[in-house]
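User: My instructor asked us to take a sequence, write out its structure as tokens, and then describe one feature of it. I'm not sure where to start. Here is the sequence I was given:
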Amino acid sequence: MTGKIISINISQSKGEKKTSVQSAMFKENHGIVGDAHAGDWHRQVSLLATESVDKMRGKGVELHPGDFAENLTVENIQLSKLKIGQRLLVGSEIILEITQIGKECHDGCAIKKLVGDCVMPREGVFAKVMKGGEIKTGDQIVLVL
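Assistant: Let's start with the prediction itself. The structure tokens for your sequence are:
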């Protein structure tokens, strides 16, 4: 399974919309340097597939990368089919290990309020950084284990 990084999204504070950046540094056992959700826990990096975002666009909602608070928006990887413990190679050196599939949607989710549904709880995945490095938009993402 091989895909591509469409967008890298970070925020300085929790609860604020993520902003797309062209490149980012991933730090082992921490997450994305400069992102509010990084830290020593199991949900250091969040990923969502463009195919999942397209489902919501089909409901008539204008959406952009990062609107679901995902760190990485990817294409051609069926994230919701991954299993906990599987690993992804991002770019040429970053290794992410899947730690959680989906999440509980908080009550204040603007997308759920707008259309009555949100894909992140079902199709978003979370990972821990096993090996750090730098990535940029357009880099490859590959299932390695």
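For the description part of your assignment, you could build on this observation: The chain is about 10% helix and 40% strand. Try explaining in your own words what that tells you about the chain.
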